[in-house]
Amino acid sequence: MKVYEIDGIAPVVDPTAYVHPSAVLIGDVVIGPGAYIGPCASLRGDFGRLFINAGANVQDCCVMHGFPGSDTIVEENGHIGHGAILHGCIVRRNGMVGMNAVVMDNAVVGESAIVAAQSFVKAGMDIPPRMLAGGVPAKVMRELTELEMAWKVEGTGVYHDLVRRCHGTLREVEALTAVEPDRKRLKLPELKTLKETRRAKA
């Protein structure tokens, strides 16, 4: 990871968290136990404090930042999808922000709520717990089903396992020049897309 101090304040990373070497942490950033920070994530605590709490994941190419004096918070088991932007907002415990979504200043994603991919959550919006919000601008659409809630928890669990896998086996190597015979596959627990999960339960 690339870690920078500013104005005498350095990032804090719990030893059990995993931060990819290409991620950038600047200033007032606090990463809690078992959290995952993906490749090319940019966490800029040069204006306000960034909290990534226990078991949360901030995936590849995400950006976290905020206005001067603001806190940007991902609570325990928060799940921030690829390419999302969080700016001066709060994602409550077990909340999820979908891929390439934007959550603006003083917005709150409620506990176990989900923001759909590519949505724009306006400044100050309050998404209630266990609700789905989506669109540009985002609107609260409906309550999440028990199946959707379970699917989200399962997906976050895969990232908890990824932290362990990264600590145990991730290392920089030279690329192979050809596919080896009988190339092995990753051995992972089965995880279906939400659409496949709905179909299997129907």
UniProtKB/TrEMBL annotation:
The superkingdom of the source organism is Bacteria
Spell out the Gene3D superfamilies in the cross-references.
Answer: Hexapeptide repeat proteins
Show the CDD domains listed in the entry: LbH_paaY_like
Q: Which InterPro entries match?
A: Transf_Hexapept/Carb_Anhydrase, Trimer_LpxA-like_sf
Mind telling me what this protein is named?
Phenylacetic acid degradation protein PaaY
Q: Please tell me the species this chain comes from.
A: Sulfuritalea hydrogenivorans sk43H
Q: What is the lineage of its organism?
A: Bacteria, Pseudomonadati, Pseudomonadota, Betaproteobacteria, Nitrosomonadales
